[in-house]
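Here comes just one.
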Amino acid sequence: MNRELIKRIVRSGLKSDRPALTVAVKQLASSESKQGHKAFAEDLRAIVQQAPPEGQVQALSSVSVHRSELEKSPTATPPRNRSEAAPLVDVRWSRKSFQDVVLGDRPKKRLCRFLEEYTKQERLAAFGLTPKRKLLFFGPPGNGKTLCAEVIAGELEMPLFYVRFDSLVASYLGETAANLRRVFDFANTNQGVVFFDEFDAIGKTRDARDDVGELKRVVNSFLQLLDSYIGHGPIIAATNYEKLLDHALARRFDDLVHFPAPTEKQMVHYFRVRMKPFRVEGFSAEQAAAWCEGCSFSDADRIFTESLKTIALESSTTLNVGAFREAVDCYRHAGTAYDTQRRESS
């Protein structure tokens, strides 16, 4: 055994993931002592005791990467594809919190638990446990999946690494898998929340009849990269079409969080929050929710924003029932026309 090498590894590791490593070092020291390597065991214990106080090291539970630090870091330049030199990752900073999103009790509870595990890693490490790090968001479009990825980044004070599928997916054989490797290489060396939106674009089942072989290679590559991921930040994937995902791929995630369509109660709460800063005349949040029955949160946001534009253009400061109903009617008409056109063209 190269004991000096182990000691150097320990000294280096204590500068980063301290809580988990401290537990591991103590266990190693105890094991070595039982085997009669008492001097080596004492050396390990001394290294731990002489390390800087926990508040002076950047443990994963409290580390915060600032925009200026990321921009100055030479390793923080987002990777690019070879064919067009287009960036594969957009680095975004979020100030979103749970106050900015309306969620059902179940998904909110799951996300709060995820954040609790991530910010209290030392408590889990004391039991030899690790926090969840890979989340899969699924459910109908427009109900908060992307927003919640931004919320997690904001709550953890980490940048959001938004993976750009327009640059990731390539027409050349093997290039998509190579681009995936570049994304994971970047995520392994830079702390941030990695976000794969519209994940079904590369995560479709390998049994698809229209696949010519490239899809299988991409999914296989993603499985391997996900299993070998060693980055400090979480990985989040989101899809509107969970039934299209490869089953083996879905099982690789630590938790699957469902974002269902909003209930009437949730929609009422949403409109109460949105209407609070404004003077409203002629209708209530309950009525707004009833008129928007069947809408997603994204649809409701579009309707509410359109009604605000109407009163702004009229130089009014009051959100009146006429402006809101007009926005609802426009949305309904546009949706009906779109559905009719799709049926006629299919």
Observations:
- The chain is about 55% helix and 10% strand.
